[in-house]
């Protein structure tokens, strides 16, 4: 299974958008406290639209508790990483849970955590004109690369509500 982990997220709109992405991709979300917002805050719910009730997520008091409860392969996203996110094989033939860990918006993941697993520290390539991409955009870029490598698992490839032939039908738009 694929997992997105947010280390001490600060901005409710980012987390709400990531929640929606997790529901859309069948990805479990892990939130490591302290959070910079309340989970029942109106901004968070609005960003997650009406999908939050379908979200598989868990909140942890700290990173150590998260590690004790979750075994698998950890990947860390940091602007200091030396490998692009596309340089890893996420096909997961061994069946391990894969955890994609993103730091808080202001300071990222603490260096003491990153230094324990430098081989799994990576960055999304970008110009030198910005320090970092938006957190919710970064999560979406990464999880869709992972899913692309996994042939999108069981995600729908056709729009389920209007029918597979919607574009071909002669009705008015």
Describe this structure as you would to a colleague.
With 173 residues, the chain is α/β, with parallel strands linked by helices. Helix content is 27%, strand content 17%. It contains 5 helices and 7 strands. The protein has helices spanning 12-25, 42-47, 63-69, 111-114, 135-149; strands spanning 2-7, 28-32, 57-60, 73-77, 83-84, 98-102, 121-123. A 7-stranded parallel beta sheet has the order 3-2-1-6-4-7-5. Helix 1 (12-25) runs parallel beside helix 5 (135-149). It is globular, with a radius of gyration of 17 Å. The model has no long low-confidence stretch (mean pLDDT 89).
Question: Could you give a quick summary of the protein structure above?
Answer:
This protein has helices at 12-25, 42-47, 63-69, 111-114, 135-149, and strands at residues 2-7, 28-32, 57-60, 73-77, 83-84, 98-102, 121-123. With 173 residues, it is an alpha/beta fold.
Helical stretch tally:
5
**Rg over C-alpha atoms, rounded to the nearest angstrom:** 17 Å
* Total strand segments: 7
Determine the fraction of residues in helical runs and give it as a percent range: 25-40%
The percent range for strand residues is 15-25%
Question: What topology does this entry show?
Answer:
Layout: E1 2-7, H1 12-25, E2 28-32, H2 42-47, E3 57-60, H3 63-69, E4 73-77, E5 83-84, E6 98-102, H4 111-114, E7 121-123, H5 135-149
Parallel strand pairs: 1-2, 1-6, 2-3, 4-6, 4-7, 5-7
Helix pairs in contact: 1-5
Keywords:
single chain; 173 residues; alpha/beta; 5 helices; globular
